[in-house]
UniProtKB/TrEMBL annotation:
Belongs to the enoyl-CoA hydratase/isomerase family. This is enoyl-CoA hydratase. It holds the Pfam family ECH_1. Could possibly oxidize fatty acids using specific components. InterPro entries: ClpP/crotonase-like_dom_sf (IPR029045), Enoyl-CoA_hyd/isom_CS (IPR018376), Enoyl-CoA_hydra/iso (IPR001753), Enoyl-CoA_hydra_C (IPR014748). It comes from Pseudacidovorax intermedius. Keywords: Fatty acid metabolism, Lipid metabolism, Lyase.
Length: 259
């Protein structure tokens, strides 16, 4: 399939990489881009050979938010009836294999929300995160007011959402928004290294781990712990569990078959 707003490639036969590609608008997100992103991620998710995905942008911008030029003319009726842009976010959320955001430059508004929708964020040292919608007379519309406080706590989330200020990479790492910060020229190596590590594990265990961590944000602690316990027990029905533990005991590298 050919795309106009993203570039898609596979590394080492097992990591699917999507590069957002609307450079003139700093990768501003529109319906066409989000449809393509959803289609690409779903295709990777369905491909048995792919064990992990990476979403990235350019050096200057991961994504500078929803496309303001497009949004400016919309009425409430346009956005509500058309379920404007937020409708295509469901596809990102529905991906079952891990998705890493490799962020360089601006990750603002919907761009920050897209990064937060990924399973974890690896940032270049020039990354800048923000929810500046307040400056436009609106608020975050793709989960920012919910995911940001879960990631960085209420104080910083309120600060960001109410003042519209940006957070640099160092602050984002201190606050827990990103898992690692590396120099820009190491960003893709670092993300690819993490993705290859994940891709070599049992896909079943990896999907169960993702599902269980995500559950921590959905319900009560006791429900989450019970959910995790059920998945943990279920993994003992897989051949990969036998392989992983046998490999450890026999001091050899595990060869997972995703079964
Ligand atoms: N939409 C459309 N075009 C954009 C956007 C955007 N979000 N951001 C930048 N551009 C364009 C600029 O208009 C400019 O175009 P041109 O060259 O034709 O004038 C080009 O990209 C380069 O931008 P600048 O000249 O402004 O570059 P600077 O380096 O001076 O500034 C900034 C970079 C700080 C990133 C600045 O461009 C900026 O503030 N951008 C807007 C950031 C913003 O407000 N983002 C939030 C948008 S609202 C949103 O995301 C709501 C999400 C709701 C959920 C829906 C899901 C998406």
């Amino acid at each position: 399939m050919s795309y106009e707003n993203i570039e898609v490639r596979v590394e080492a036969g097992k990591v699917g990489i999507v590069t957002l590609n609307r450079p003139k608008a700093l990768n501003a997100l529109n319906d066409a881009l989000m449809d393509e992103l959803g289609a690409a991620l779903k295709a990777f998710d369905a491909d048995e050979a792919i064990g992990c995905m990476i979403i990235t942008g350019s050096e200057r911008a991961f994504a500078a938010g929803a496309d303001i030029a497009l949004m400016a003319k919309y009425t409430f009726v346009d956005t509500y009836k058309g379920d404007y842009i937020t409708r295509n976010w469901e596809s990102v959320r529905s991906i079952r294999k891990p998705v890493i955001a490799a962020v360089s430059g601006f990750a603002l508004g919907g761009g920050c929300e897209l990064a937060m929708m990924c399973d974890f964020i690896i940032a270049a040292d020039n990354a800048r995160f923000g929810q500046p919608e307040i400056k436009l007379g609106v608020i975050p519309g793709a989960g920012g007011t919910q995911r940001l406080p879960r990631a960085v706590g209420k104080a910083k989330a309120m600060d960001m959402a109410l003042t519209g200020r940006m957070m640099d990479a160092a602050e984002a790492e201190r606050a827990g928004l990103v898992s690692r910060v590396v120099p820009y020229d190491k960003l893709m190596d670092e993300a690819l290294g993490a993705a290859l590590t994940i891709a070599d594990f049992s896909q079943i265990a990896v999907m169960a781990a993702k599902e269980s961590v995500n559950r921590a944000f959905e319900g009560s602690l006791s429900d989450g712990v019970m959910f995790e316990r059920r998945l943990f027990h279920a993994l003992f029905a897989t051949a990969d569990q036998k392989e992983g533990m046998d490999a450890f005991l026999n001091k050899r590298k595990a060869e997972f078959k995703n079964q």
